[in-house]
């Protein structure tokens, strides 16, 4: 099997080229193998989960869609008249977005990119905060997000408390006995004969999000919580003194 870094870009390019039912295989270090149906990455607003729909409807001003993927969220925002930038590290996905009509795809790393202007809304859907990888990188993330926000701006993100994955007779005590936060996951994706490199991905529970946000100078409001641990949060820079020395 060939090792590449842009598995999702390859799979989504195939979809645009007429491969209708592709599947991205996902291995992790905590659960059985899973698959991502490629058509799901091209969903319309009506096909999106309620949390995503609500987040999109809460956007205002200039929007930065972080980890934009195939551009489904950016396209809807464009259609509503929002000035939207779609930030994505995958060159293949950036090409897909261009083909789909996304006006401003940017191939760059969230932590390194230097924009020409600030944004009123940072949007991070499909567990976009996962790009942080591990809890100890959250202070860097919060600092970076502040650098990108205009005065009065907001950060909208969804994530999940995945403690339920360990809630059975054999594994119910595992989160407490891990040597790391239980939401720190390792993933590896493959598609056809292509296999990606392993990467770290973070799922953060709402209590940990609120706690770390406050420590780093943010106010955190949990806007919506679902039945399976998923939630939508809105974060805004706090006006009170904090540990953030930006």
TrEMBL record:
Alphabetized SUPFAM superfamilies for the sequence: S-adenosyl-L-methionine-dependent methyltransferases (SSF53335)
Keywords: Methyltransferase, Transferase
KW NAD (keyword) present: no
GO molecular function terms attached to this record: methyltransferase activity
GO biological process terms held by the UniProt record: methylation
Name the UniProt record assigns to this protein: Methyltransferase family protein
Statement: the UniProt record of this protein carries the keyword Ribonucleoprotein: no
Lineage: Bacteria, Pseudomonadati, Bacteroidota, Bacteroidia, Marinilabiliales
């Amino acid at each position: 099997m060939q090792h590449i870094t842009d598995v999702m870009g390859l799979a989504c390019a195939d979809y645009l080229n007429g491969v209708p039912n592709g599947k991205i295989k996902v291995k992790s270090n905590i659960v059985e193998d899973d698959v991502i149906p490629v058509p799901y990455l091209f969903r319309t607003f009506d096909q999106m989960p309620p949390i995503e729909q609500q987040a999109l409807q809460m956007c205002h001003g200039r929007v930065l869609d972080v980890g934009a993927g195939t551009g489904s969220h950016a396209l809807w925002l464009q259609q509503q008249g929002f000035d939207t930038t779609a930030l994505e590290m995958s060159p293949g996905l950036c090409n897909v977005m261009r083909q789909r009509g996304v006006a401003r795809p940017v191939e760059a790393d969230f932590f390194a990119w230097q924009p020409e202007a600030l944004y009123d809304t940072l949007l991070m859907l499909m567990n976009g905060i996962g790009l942080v990888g591990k809890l100890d990188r959250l202070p860097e993330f919060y600092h970076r997000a502040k650098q990108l926000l205009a005065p009065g701006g907001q950060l909208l993100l969804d994530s999940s408390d995945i403690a339920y994955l360990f809630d059975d007779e054999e594994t119910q005590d595992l989160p407490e006995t891990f040597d790391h936060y239980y939401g720190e996951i390792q993933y590896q994706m493959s598609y056809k004969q292509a296999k990606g490199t392993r990467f770290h991905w973070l799922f953060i529970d709402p209590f940990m999000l609120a706690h770390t946000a406050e420590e780093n100078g943010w106010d955190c409001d949990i806007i919506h919580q679902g039945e399976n641990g998923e939630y939508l949060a809105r974060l805004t820079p706090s006006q009170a003194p904090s540990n953030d020395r930006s």
